[in-house]
Amino acid sequence: MASFKTIVAVQKNGRITLDSAPFQAGDQVEVIVKTAPDGSRTQGRFPLRGTPYRYERPFDPALPAQ
Prior knowledge:
Elements: H1 40-43
């Protein structure tokens, strides 16, 4: 079973239009509609996501030698 995921906006008349779906005319498909994630839920969970980072000594061992 093939799947196809896209994000589209609901039109003023309540219609949703899918363009370029990878299915043939006449194929039966299952349609499930849910609101798109806005990213606000994960904002607090991963506060460092997207921030730049720098390695001070990238070739040093991660653990001290025994």
